[in-house]
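quick one: uracil bound model?
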Amino acid sequence: MGEGSRRVWMEALALSLAWGADEALEETPVDRLSPRPGPPPTTLPGPAGGRPLPRASPRPAAGGPAVSAAERAAAAAESPEALRAAIAAFEGCSLRETATTLVFADGNPEATVMLVGEAPGAEEDRAGLPFVGPSGQLLDRMLGSVGLDRTRVLITNVLPWRPPGNRNPTDTEIALCLPFLMRHIALVAPRWLVLLGAVPTRALTGRAEGIRRLRGKWLEIPVPGLAGPVPTLPTYHPAYLLRSPAAKRESWADLRLLRRKILSAGEKK
Ligand code: URA
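yep, here:
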């Protein structure tokens, strides 16, 4: 390869990485630009003179048959292990095809505090455990600051599979995975839920306000299968705190609210 071509390829690679394409999905590269034989067409006509637009793959409508299938599979699970197996067998969410592993939960399944994050990142996808990368290390330090650790909490995510390139989860992906999360909460029956960031907060509370508004306030979330609503505390996601360390003060205040609840319920710190 000549020096000029090498430079062009290196620039293309750097651009792919900047756009979040940081995982190889197949052994060999796929040329999506050359014409391919046979119907159906995989592209739509693009803007006049421009490159054709890729045809979006059909997605299940939120509330459609795939969501109903997820609800049925989740409801049939009678234990966290059975739920994990049900998620592993669920074929309705295409994220499972691009993820390396299913990331279900970490910590104590009998914990009274359950934390819910957004979705696995690259490290979690490799390890099969939530929050093991840099934001997980910060989360561990935050928990430690109020006398908690992974033996005293259970940690999970809204999505059990990593979205490619860590892109934001779509509403459809959230709708497909939410029945499993709700069932997980019902099976664990925590006394308190902590929602890490905007995605779990919106998914579980249905509230449109941003995380800045909702953090630091106890909300009540009804969970099918549980006798009463679960007291729930939204707070910032640790990844946001890594980018905006000034917000750690507010997170610390939120964690003190949690500690106060635990202490006032008579649990050892
Ligand atoms: N961010 C999350 O929301 N969850 C993880 O498991 C890791 C990073």
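Residues 61-264 form a domain with the Uracil-DNA Glycosylase, subunit E fold (CATH 3.40.470.10).
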